[in-house]
Every structure is written in structure tokens, then in C-alpha cells.
TrEMBL record:
InterPro entries: DHquinase_II, DHquinase_II_CS, DHquinase_II_sf. Its EC number is 4.2.1.10. The active site is at residues 23, 98. The lineage of its organism: Bacteria, Pseudomonadati, Bacteroidota, Cytophagia, Cytophagales. Pathway: Metabolic intermediate biosynthesis; chorismate biosynthesis; chorismate from D-erythrose 4-phosphate and phosphoenolpyruvate: step 3/7. It comes from Runella salmonicolor. HAMAP family: AroQ (MF_00169). The record marks 18 as: Transition state stabilizer. This is 3-dehydroquinate dehydratase. It is an enzyme of class 4 (lyase). Belongs to the type-II 3-dehydroquinase family. It catalyses: 3-dehydroquinate = 3-dehydroshikimate + H2O. Catalyzes a trans-dehydration via an enolate intermediate.
Amino acid sequence: MKQILIINGPNLNLLGKREPTIYGSQTFEEYFQTLQSLFSDVELHYFQSNHEGALIDKIHEVGFTFDGIVLNAGAYTHTSVAIADALSAVTTPAVEVHISNVHAREAFRHHSYLSSRVKGVIVGLGLKGYELAVRYFL
Ligand code: CA2
């Protein structure tokens, strides 16, 4: 069975609870159940943290054994050289996902430190982006 980890970064624990016009009205825990039933032949894991170091620790933990990482690093996408370095340091490939279309938002969201370290980037397709990213690894 393939092992794939979905990682969500800061504030994404608020999905479905705040700002539904930008991020939708479903919690990630609800959506994760949908993903698990869609991909019943995949060992799908989920991790969320608001802390940069915890995200890096998790990338290190799975980054030599898992088949894929689906990463929405939230605002750290636009600031974190450390997460970029962690992605480069591991062997597991990653796909970067953003729920909103970051290119249609403020200029500071247009640059990602992570995009050059991942296989590909999915932006603006809502939660569906996570499903498409998982499919890439199958
Ligand atoms: O569109 C995305 O997925 C983002 O990664 C979300 C980040 C943002 O900083 C990135 O530029 C784009 C913010 C996540 C905040 O999530 C919330 C969810 C519900 C309510 C409030 C914030």
C-alpha cells in the first residue's frame, strides 16, 4: 500500500470555521474522511501544525519512507527557507497545494519558496486540489 501524508500548515485548522468565502465551509477533518473513502487502497495520513519546526520535523519523519507528501504550508509558503530546505533534504517527492488562487490575491502570496522544491503545484481548485495531488502519486 502506498503511504501518502497530507500536511497542512498554520491556520488551516480553521478551515470550515472562518472565512468560508475564501476557503469553503468544510472542515479538513470532514474532507479527509472523503479522501480516505476515495482512496481506500492508499495509506493516507494527515498532519496539521501552526508551528514551522513541527512541519519540518514531520517532513523529516516521513521523508525517506513515504511515497508522497501533499503540502499546503499556508503562509509559510511565502516566507520559509527552512521548509524549502527540508523538502530538498528528503527523498520523498512533494506536491504543493493551495486552496485559494494565490495569484489572484495579494502580491506577497505570488511567491513561493517551496515551488522549486516540489514536483508540481495545484492552486485555486479548493479542497479538490488535495485529491488531485494524491492522484499524482498513484
Ligand atoms: O490558499 C491556500 O491554501 C493558502 O495556503 C492558505 C493560507 C495563505 O496564507 C496562503 O497564502 C494560501 C492561509 C490559511 C488560512 O486558513 C484559514 C482557513 C480558514 C479561516 C481562516 C484561515
